[in-house]
Amino acid sequence: MRKLSLRLRIFILFFTVSVGGLVVLNNVFQDKHNNIHDALSKMELSSSLREIRQASREDSLKAQSLMRIYSEGKAAVNIALSESRIMTSLVLLIIIVLSTAIFLIVISRINKPLKELKNATDQIRQGNFSVHLSEKGMPEIRELKSSFNFMSCELEAVQTRLLIAEKEMIWKDLSRILAHEIKNPLTPIQLAIQRLDERLQTDPDTVNDILKESLSIIAQEVENLRLLAQDFSQYARANQPALELLDPAEALSEIVNSYLSNYEIKLDLAENLLIRFDKTHFYQIITNVLQNAIDACEENPKIEVKLYKERSYAVLSIIDNGKGIAEEDLKRIFEPYFSRKTKGTGLGLALVKKLADVNHSIIRVKSSPGEGSNFTFIIEEKSP
User: Would you state the pLDDT for residue 273?
Assistant: First the structure.
């Protein structure tokens, strides 16, 4: 059974007390009137009539006059009693109507600002701390609104400070990470250049002996810088996907084919599956997870890529025989900038999680140290 609102309970209580009290008052008046009426009905004229012996016509006339006066008085009293009852009922009705109207006006003046406060608190809960209430109404309501507005201003100020602090922290972390990641490839580039310069100064004729090696080092580290910039760019751009019907088995075969010449990758792909996914995002997810699996294997990487149907979902698993992930790190592997590798930005798996989310797929990871890792994606199957 639905519980009555506070406003309705107050109204029922007020109405019950008011009507009950007025009914009791009316009954008291009615009892008094009835007592007076009964007393008049029982009145006798014997004392007056005994004084009149009615021995003569004059006595008879006096008796008749006295009876007429009594009857007229009694009738007047009855009329007065009826009018009194009518007036009493009318007054009681007016009191009920006026008291109810006053009560409804008071409730309305309380209810409206309470609704405003409720709506304002809903906006606060949704993160809009700029809401401001007009400070009108009864003194108590004005004081309540004033306190709410003060709280709202304080929350907005706190939110602003937190956002500024969060942005500063992000920029500091980003600057630190960028400085660290850029310094790593710059150091071997600088050493290769210094080595070439020293050889030119001391023995120019043998520069060609180290030129190829130095250029290879420089080219490799420049490529690392390019990949670093690409990782940051991809993570920043990941937003709304361009969804299209995609054959995951065909896409996986194309992606894995470029790795087969260097790594042992086993494919177990179910046919006739279709998903709705951004094709570019799918490529980024698979290449990032594959590269992460290869990096996790210290030697002789053995990767297994499985695609199968489970109920109305396409399930994709990438399993490696690497060193695995520690339990305390498993909860953080999708955090931006988190990485246990000596090289890398820590954005690869963060990008994978972000792209999986925007494409409405679920990612799960199972891993234990020394036993490898299993990255599983659950994607809703779509009909053509």
Answer: 92
